[in-house]
């Protein structure tokens, strides 16, 4: 499968027209080494693969493990905002003002009390920001510069990307240490990966040398589906230990919870979906060499 093999030299091919954005940019500066938040872009330009569901539920799970978490909604759809119980139509301050450099992030952040993490909310204004930014200086670095100001306040920052490889996703990739790629194990899922990997490669070659693929997450997984198992096996062949061992099952509680403005952990703590995202948070913390324990169980912080 040429899909992953081709990714190494991909930046040169400019198969994705948006990569033209990088021409003439200053090359990637050194990243800060201090122990600060690990910033993850949750990205896949394919729509409906579970990016937002992963952001909300992973944020809640990390918070339950006593981590200080900021969830950045970088999608004009505002689904992460609504899913956290924040009305996107009533925002006075949002990610738009932060990207437009009108506000520092901490002035726009709201607390999601039910889940114990912070949210930088978004709504359709962000689509306007994307247009305005096209003309702006350092247009793909706005989020990175903004997050530098709050990075010490958090252990994890998760950025919910829109389903496109546009300027908003580029801002997320430029700001991130790693990319978490949610994938539904179906036939066309693999095709989209090439463009995403090319974009990651181009960002690495230009503004963010340290960007890594944090991991590929199998979402909405149905083990009875033969194709899903085949695609999953292919993913393991090509991404090996980059594929999270935790698999997120298809679970109706995960789909219901956002309509109550809650993560699954707050909506139905014992549901398979909530438990799967807790397992994912545990896997990520273990990978990072950190102690794992639930806050309510008096575990390690
Ligand atoms: N594991 C799951 N089980 C059942 N339903 C799920 C699961 N994960 C996500 N969903 C549902 O699938 C739909 C798409 O999920 P989600 O919004 O998280 O995807 P997305 O990648 O963020 O979409 P978009 O590209 O539009 O931003 C939603 O209705 C969500 O509730
Ligand atoms: Mg989404």
Task: Summarize the model shown.
38% of the residues lie in helices and 15% in strands. With 301 residues, the chain is an alpha/beta fold. It has a single domain, classed as Rossmann fold (3-Layer(aba) Sandwich), CATH 3.40.50.
Question: Would you spell out the secondary-structure blueprint of this structure?
Answer:
Elements: H1 2-5, E1 38-42, H2 51-64, E2 69-73, H3 79-83, H4 95-99, H5 105-108, E3 110-112, E4 117-120, H6 125-133, H7 142-148, E5 156-160, H8 167-175, E6 178-184, H9 189-205, E7 212-221, H10 226-239, E8 243-249, H11 252-256, H12 264-267, H13 272-287
Parallel strand pairs: 1-5, 1-6, 2-4, 2-5, 6-7, 7-8
Antiparallel strand pairs: 3-4
Helix pairs in contact: 2-13, 7-8
The structure holds adenosine-5'-triphosphate and magnesium ion.
Residues 47-53, 75, 77, 79, 163, 219-220, 248, 250-251, 254-255, 258, 273 line the site of adenosine-5'-triphosphate.
């Amino acid at each position: 499968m040429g899909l992953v093999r081709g990714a190494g030299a991909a930046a040169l091919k400019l198969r994705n027209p948006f990569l033209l954005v990088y021409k003439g940019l200053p090359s990637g500066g050194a990243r800060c080494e201090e122990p600060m938040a690990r910033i993850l872009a949750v990205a896949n330009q394919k729509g409906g693969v579970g990016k937002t569901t992963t952001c909300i539920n992973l944020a809640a799970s990390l918070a339950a493990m006593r981590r200080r978490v900021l969830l950045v909604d970088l999608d004009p759809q505002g689904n992460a905002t609504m899913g956290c119980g924040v009305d996107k139509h009533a925002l006075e301050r949002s990610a738009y003002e932060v990207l437009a450099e009108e506000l520092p992030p901490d002035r726009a952040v709201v607390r999601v009390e039910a889940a114990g993490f912070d949210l930088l909310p978004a709504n359709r204004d962000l689509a306007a920001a994307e247009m305005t930014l096209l003309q702006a200086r350092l247009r793909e670095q706005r989020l990175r510069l903004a997050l530098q100001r709050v990075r010490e306040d958090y252990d994890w920052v998760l950025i919910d990307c829109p389903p496109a490889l546009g300027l908003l996703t580029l801002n997320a990739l430029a700001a991130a240490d790693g990319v978490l790629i949610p994938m539904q194990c179906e036939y066309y899922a693999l095709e989209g990966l090439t463009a995403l990997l090319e974009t990651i490669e181009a960002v690495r070659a230009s503004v963010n040398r340290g960007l890594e693929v944090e991991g590929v997450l199998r979402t909405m997984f149905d083990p009875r589906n033969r194709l899903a198992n085949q695609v999953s096996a292919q993913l393991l062949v090509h991404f090996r230990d980059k594929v999270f061992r935790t698999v997120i099952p298809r679970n109706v509680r995960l789909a219901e919870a956002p309509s109550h403005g809650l993560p699954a952990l707050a909506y139905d703590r014992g549901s398979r979906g909530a438990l799967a995202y807790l397992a994912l948070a545990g896997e990520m913390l273990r990978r990072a060499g950190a102690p794992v324990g639930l806050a309510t169980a008096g575990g390690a912080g």
